[in-house]
Amino acid sequence: MAVAETQSPDNFTPYEPSPGEEYMNEQQLAHFRRILLGWKADLMAEVDRTVRHLQEDANNYADPADRATQEEGFNLELRTRDRERKLLKKINETIEKIDEDDYGFCNACGIEIGIRRLEARPTATLCVDCKTLSELKEKQLGG
Predict the structure, then answer these.
(1) Keywords for this entry (predicted)?
(2) Of 14, 78, 90, 123, which residue is least crowded by CB atoms under 10 Å?
C-alpha cells in the first residue's frame, strides 16, 4: 500500500475516532503508518546530513586540542546516529506489525494500548499499566 503523505511524530494531526469506531481499523492503521514513515524519513535525512558533515568538516588540525574537540564532536554525533539506528529498527518492526494487522495491542496483556499513547510513542508495545509495572520491576531489580 503506497502512502503519499507522511507525518512526523512531532508534527501530525491527532486522530479523532468516530463514536463506536473499531479500534485499529484501516484508517487508524494508515494514520500510524504515516507517522512512522515520516519519523523514518526524518531519521534517514539526519543520517545523510551526518555523512555529509563528517565528510565535509573533517579537518586535520595541527593543534591536538582542536583535533580532540573535533573528534569528540564526531563521536557524539555517531553515538546519536547509533541510537537512531536502533530506533529505525524498532520503527521497521512496528511497520511490519501494522502490515500483519497486529498493531496497537499490549504484548503483555493483550489489551488496547490506546490511540493517544501510540501517538505519543508510535513504537510502544505495552499499555500504560504494563509499562508502569515493568518500570517498577526494573527499578526494584536495578536500584
Answers:
(1) Cytoplasm, Metal-binding, Zinc, Zinc-finger
(2) 14
For Cα atoms 38, 10, 48, give the angle at the middle one, nearest 5 degrees.
50
Give residue limits of the domains in the chain. 22-103, 105-142
Question: Hey, what amino acid is at 118?
Answer: L
Sequence ranges of the binding site: 106, 109, 127, 130
Instruction: Measure the CA–CA gap between 58 and 67, rounded to whole angstroms.
Output: 10
Based on C-alpha coordinates, what's the Rg of the chain?
Answer: 20
pLDDT in tens, 79-128: 888 899 999 999 999 999 999 999 999 999 999 999 999 999 999 999 99
What residues are designated binding site for Zn(2+)? 106, 109, 127, 130
